[in-house]
Amino acid sequence: MITKNDVVTIAYGKSSIIVYIFLILVAILLIKIVVRIIKMIICLLLKTIFVSKYDVKLPKGTNIGVRRKGKNFFVFGKIYWRASNKDGTRDKRVSRNRLIREYSVLSIDEFVLKNKNPFALYELVKELRKFGLNRIDRNFTEKTKLNNKWEKLNSCSIKNGINDIINKYIQDPYQFETFCKDLYEERGYIAKQTSKSKDGGYDLLIKKDGKTYIVECKCYQANHVISRPQLQKLAGANQIVKADGMIFITTSSYSSDAVNFAKQTNIEIIDGEKLLSLVKKIDITLCEREVLLEDWELSKNDILKLYPKDIKDYVNSRSPNL
Q: Whole-prediction pTM value?
């Protein structure tokens, strides 16, 4: 038979267990808080050491840790929708869909830095390289940009005269337009190529020193002659575009009537011989020049190309720093 004292003893025992469990949970919580505070103090100390050593400002949201010294490198973290379509764009059928941001990582000397903002961390990389830490290896995206740049430069290289250009592009006029675009970009112009189907009477729109030019590009055999009507078509297109100047490029030559019309309408005409001269200037520069910072250093748009289109729009609509 259970007495009153037994009931009290059982109740006391149960309450003691609850108290013990509560105290254990409180202890675990306190330990987590202490550990977190220690981590914050260590992180703050590491940030202070890093800033003092490299004389740079760390971007907001940067976490810092230590590692064994090794290869210095930088990688971009992925940014993607929690629910996405096959092309990576947002799946609008899913409510409360959000962006997932993975850490971009910079490892340099004994430090490891992480930040979910790839733009901010890349700015830090550029600052460190200016400081003299060019030993931060180029990442995959930078190497790709550099390779594309040198392919573009090499496409402007010729060895055996105008026939090299003709033979390379006579079957693909659009690629000849791209060749001319690369040529002008190497000369310091900002160049945009029109679409294949709707070119509006010109192939390139180029800009430099605040002035705009429209360019028509024609790859023909060397014995072909450009006639006046082809130049008239370019002049007609400029009635709509209202560019500051017009340029007609060909691998062949011009009729006397076309030359006279070009003088009357201020169209700059470039024949095969002049085109070859321009290309040779680039070719000489290519052989002598070293790799430039602008050949591989990434812009905001270069970084945005890593992500789906609607993520680019999302970033642009909010902040250049994501």
A: 0.57
